[in-house]
Write a structure and sequence with these properties.
heterodimer, A: alpha+beta, Heat Shock Protein 90, five-stranded antiparallel sheet, 5 helices, 5 strands, about 25% strand, B: alpha/beta, Transcription Regulator spoIIAA, five-stranded mixed sheet, about 35% helix
Chain lengths: ~140, ~110
Amino acid sequence: MEGLTVAGNLEALGAIASYVQAAAASAGLSKARTYNLRLAVDEVITNIIIHGYQESGLTGDVSIQAWIDDAALTVCLEDAGADYNPYHIQDELNCEKVIHQPLEERPLGGLGVYLAMRSVDQFRYERIGDRNRTSFVVFRRSPS
Amino acid sequence: MKINIKTVGDIQVIALEGDVDANTAPKVQQHVLSLAEPKSKILLNLTDVPYMSSAGLRMLLSLYRQTTTKQGQLVLVGLGEDIRRTMSVTGFLNFFTTCDTLEVGLTVFDRNF
């Protein structure tokens, strides 16, 4: 699919969601897998915008590009925000422990990355030069 | 995002319409938290919410804490299958009273509270 580039602010989340839903429809994903992919992309873009750009005092774009082949739909995000490593966030927050805590004792953040990683078949983060690249892969036929 | 607030007896019924993401959640949170007064009964109707990200979960977490601290009651109504799954994966679901319909939701508040 032709890619899409949006300004890195939260108003862009709707356009990104529409792009992901169109890609998922082209790939013939089920309703639940479409929802999960949208969730994963939405959570990561939200982190990019809030932590990578706004809290780092930076502005910039986020590009999204989808590819469909026989096996899978791959969605790739690129941004020029601060170095943002979801694996470190995941480790620091120890999410597997957090989700078993009573709601009264939980930290307010950190669930987004946990959800993003769990919602797709493959999740990959790379820092390439001064850019972040995050990739999401959803298999078109779920392994049974 | 549309936020519709009305009162049924002593229950405050908040109906949301639209996606709850990081862009819309702050507005929702501002409205719903202002209703969480001591011993308030709050019903949050999510029947017309097709999507909720972790920003929405954080809003629910804040509302849960406010109502619990102030000895109020909170009931969630009309959770879609997808949102229910997200709440289950994150361990949120079991903490909330949930009902399928508004009619049932209005009957589960503790009247003697």
